[in-house]
What we know:
The protein is of the alpha/beta class. It has helices at about 10-25, 40-55, 80-95, 115-120, 140-145, 190-195, 205-215, 245-255, 275-280, 300-305, 310-325, 340-355, 380-405, 440-445, 455-460, and strands spanning about 5, 30-35, 60, 70-75, 100-105, 130, 150-155, 160, 175-180, 180, 200, 220-225, 260-265, 290, 330-335, 360-365, 410-420, 425-430, 435-440, 465-475, 480-490. Helix 4 links the parallel strand 5 (about 100-105) and strand 6 (about 130). Helix 1 runs parallel beside helix 5 (about 140-145). It is globular, with a radius of gyration of 23 Å. Iron/sulfur cluster binds near residues 186, 187, 190 and 267.
Amino acid sequence: MSTQYISTEESLRQAGFLVKNRELLGDGKKYHIITFGCQLNDNDSEKMAGQMEAMNLLEAEELAEADLVVINTCSIRENAAGRFFGHLGIIKNLRKDKPNLLVAVCGCMMKQEVHVDKIRRSYPFVDMVFGPQDIYRFPELLNRRLEGSRRVYDVGMEDTVAEGVPVRRERKFRALSTIMYGCNNFCSYCVVPYARGRERSRHQAEVLAELKALADEGFSEVMLLGQNVNSYGKDLPASNEQGNFVELLTKAAEQSGLKRIRFMSSHPKDISLDLLDTIAAHPNIERHIHFALQSGSNEILKAMNRKYTAEHFLNLLAEARKRIPDISITTDIIVGFPGETEEDFQDTLRVVREAGFDQAFTFQYSPRPGTPAAKLEEVPADVMTERFNRLVEVQNENSLRAHERLVGETVEVLIEGLSDHSESSLTGRDSAYHLINFTLDEEVFAELGLAETDWVRRGQALEGRFAQVKITDAKTFSLQGELVGLAPQGRVG
Ligand code: SF4
């Protein structure tokens, strides 16, 4: 199926539904979005929030205050699916006291008929069901419901790319920009190619225009998103200066005016030396790459259909560190993939030790219905848990060692706000995506005119601002530091 690029005509048609819905909804109504899963889902939710605000809806902090609830689902892991149905149970009770509450469900799970059937049978109060490719049609689908349709279940099968959808950015300093949709890789455990369709890239000019606009609006950092950004552009015609990911990244770094550019995710089979050189040559591309290892055993990598070997992976890491000495490397690892023996697991431990990842996101395998791996015999749960604990122990040592190397250095931190763990310290990330907590002297707050304000307001006032921070202490998951100076540039509040 070929990609459907949404035309200006279609965008205007959707804008017409925004206007009609504004009238049908009336004033003072509120929306609440519950988002599961990855940053791609976060960005989709930002687009639905943008559409709802264009319909004059206000954001409800609490679910109970909402007149329209949207749940954006994820089918990557079993527990996200379980939590989704848990939330539907809560909404079922809420709806008893609030019969006019509108409930919309979207995202990857809706591309699987088994889940849509379950909603139809067991949660009949759900008003709207649509898929990840239908986000741009949300105003139209809502209009059908508001105009009297009892239920609007309409999961589109087209692979679409829509531009010009209104966006309400969740953060004031870090924006998300989805540069491509879908995936062609068919890793044997993963539902994404079935749920999100084949790879389709946005046109380069559209992405660059968005990045420039974000920089002009005052965003310091943008994260470029795709299931495998290294495939960006492969589906586009070679004409019209579309280019590949390296070209897009180079132009983004040189033309957008952004202070920091990040990207996520990169499949190790597709990471090129050109990409590493591009990062090395541009200080505003962050010093961080997420290389998803998944397993250190070549047998298991083959069964996962990952199309690289542990040796290739380690060579790539060595090249990255040679070309970009201050790079930090994070990874994903699945423990207990069907058929994983103790020997296979030992291979994973060996690669993890050798790779010395800064951080790893570790998961116990859970079968996803409809994937080839779901038909294979599972590793017993107790074996999986025991291996998982051993892996976490090895990785925690890596993380602590990587953090200890930074003690005494001064790094530039983009302030994200108050630390979750201490009410009187600020938190942020450096260019290598390390999490850094630090405190400021009262004199600094006085100079900033924040002497009398509480910590919450202090955090909000400094959000998005850059600080030079000297690292004083290393922990497994974060670093502690002290302020050296606040940069004059950057955006405040
Ligand atoms: S690269 Fe593999 S794991 Fe990642 S989204 Fe595509 S199929 Fe899933």
